[in-house]
Amino acid sequence: MIVQALAFYLFAGILLLSAFMVIAARNPVHSVLFLILAFFNSAGLFILLGAEFIALIMVIVYVGAVAVLFLFVVMMLDISFADLRKGAMQYVPVGMMIGALLIIELVFVYGSWTFATGHEEYLDAPFERFSELTNTEALGHLLYIDYVYAFQIAGLILFVAMVGAIVLTHRRRSGVRHQNVSDQQARKVEDAFEVQKVTPRIGM
Fold first, then answer.
1. In the CATH hierarchy, which fold is given to the domain comprising 1-79?
2. Contact (CB, 8 A) for 16 and 45
């Protein structure tokens, strides 16, 4: 228990510090790097809770895709961050008010939280038929057996949204050479190559 408590305080402390540095760092590249560190420590906390699947998703999706994308965007865009910081201090009071409001709401939610009657018997095994399975296997059973139709519909909605975003942002520009598959397949060897008889030491 002492080792678990020390690991929790270590992960939680680094997570809070890195989360603060995300908004406090002057260099946006450093902010993204601190964000990646925060994701890693969040994954460590999930592992301590026994949710290894969510921890792997945090590392694979958020660190391997989202944070790296943020890093590439920040490094590739030529943005004058000095100009963006001008006048930023005028928004600090509003931000502090919103933050205080959120903290008050969280305190009220935590203070009014009550457990349902008879919850003790479900703490160790929330689903009796999944009590012998690992966390990942139990989630797989729920997603791909009990909620397979909802899962497929969600995937279809995301696919339609992706296609719609591509269609809305696609523009045909003039002066750009486009690929014509039918012309390429109908092309003959005689149209592509020409045999020239070259006299030695004379050239073309």
1. Four Helix Bundle (Hemerythrin (Met), subunit A) (1.20.120)
2. no
- Distances 131 to 47, 110, 127, 128, 172 between C-alpha atoms, Å: 18, 29, 6, 5, 56
Query: Is pLDDT of 118 > 80?
Result: no
Reported pTM = 0.59
Query: What is the per-residue burial (b if ≥16 Cβ within 10 Å, else e) of 132-148?
Result: eeebeebeeeeeeeeee
Residue 58 near residue 43 (C-beta atoms within 8 A):
yes
Angle (CA) 22-27-31 rounded to 5° is 20
Across the strands, what pairs with 203? Answer: 199
Q: 192: helix, coil or strand?
A: helix
Ordered by start, the domain boundaries in the chain are 1-79, 133-170
pLDDT tens per residue across span 153-204: 999 999 999 999 888 877 777 777 777 888 888 888 777 777 777 777 775 5
pLDDT exceeding 90 applies to what percent of the chain?
22
In contact, 53 and 139? CB cutoff 8 Å: yes
d(CA 86, CA 184): 55
